[in-house]
Write a structure and sequence with these properties.
Elements: H1 9-17, H2 19-27, H3 37-55, H4 67-74, E1 79-91, E2 94-98, E3 107-117, E4 122-129, H5 140-152, E5 158-165, E6 170-177, H6 189-201
Parallel strand pairs: 4-5
Antiparallel strand pairs: 1-2, 1-3, 3-4, 5-6
Helix pairs in contact: 1-2
């Protein structure tokens, strides 16, 4: 197996949850996770938002509650990129752009909505969330996307980013600076190294977690509660 393994926020979270689960889903691909109703709903919401922003397609009636929020995003000045894919290579002295599908990519991220204002050297990052509450908003994925945005658009000096909870009608925001661009990757380096070590050694130890009892699809694992 290759020593360099492209990772995303979701895949790294999966590895951190359980290396064995990661192996079966991402490497061996002999197990798939069934899509829950919540995941299917989330995909439909993302598609509706994407087609409205990118193509001007009317929002389906069942998602009409999003219209006021998406209208505000549409009015923001700048070039709009929906489901924008970003690949990043890591070097000893920093990071560089690479194609999202490049197998030698170090990090891969997809921005739900990226608005770039070249004139003002600013960008907006928006990640749509369908949770009913923003109380436990997790900003880590946004920080990674911000770091990748600085790599792909090096003239951008500031990014205003937020998690848009379309059901809860809340917008949790953070701002990021170009001068701190590399620091946004740093918290993830230790777990990425663990992933690289697992790939190199081909050792994928199981790790107990909240999905073991009822939800983990890896039935061959001794921790699986359905055995």
């Amino acid at each position: 197996m290759p020593k360099v393994l492209p990772w995303s926020y979701s895949s790294l979270t999966l590895f951190d949850q359980c290396p064995k689960k990661y192996y079966h889903i991402k490497i061996a691909r002999d197990v798939t996770e069934p899509e829950s109703d919540a995941i299917i709903y989330g995909k439909e919401v993302h598609l509706a938002a994407e087609e409205f922003i990118r193509d001007g397609k009317p929002i389906p009636e069942k998602y009409a509650y999003m219209a006021p929020m998406l209208d505000k995003l549409l009015r923001i000045k700048g070039s709009k990129y929906c489901e924008y894919q970003m690949g990043v290579k890591k070097h000893p002295d920093g990071y560089s752009i690479t194609n999202f599908s490049d197998k030698t990519a170090w990090y891969r991220g997809v921005a739900d909505l990226l608005i770039v204002n070249k004139e003002d050297k600013e960008a907006r990052l928006v990640d749509y969330k369908t949770g009913k509450s923003s109380q436990y908003a997790d900003m880590k994925q946004l920080r990674l996307l911000a770091a990748a945005t600085f790599v792909h658009f090096p003239y951008v000096q500031k990014i205003k980013a937020g998690l848009l909870f379309v059901v809860a009608k809340d917008f949790v925001t953070e701002e990021y600076e170009f001068t701190q661009r590399n620091a946004y990757f740093e918290p993830f380096i230790p777990i990425v190294r663990q992933l690289e070590e697992a790939v190199e050694s081909d050792v994928w130890n199981p790790k107990r977690n909240f999905t073991c009892r009822k939800w983990c699809p890896v039935l061959s694992c001794s921790h699986n509660g359905r055995n």
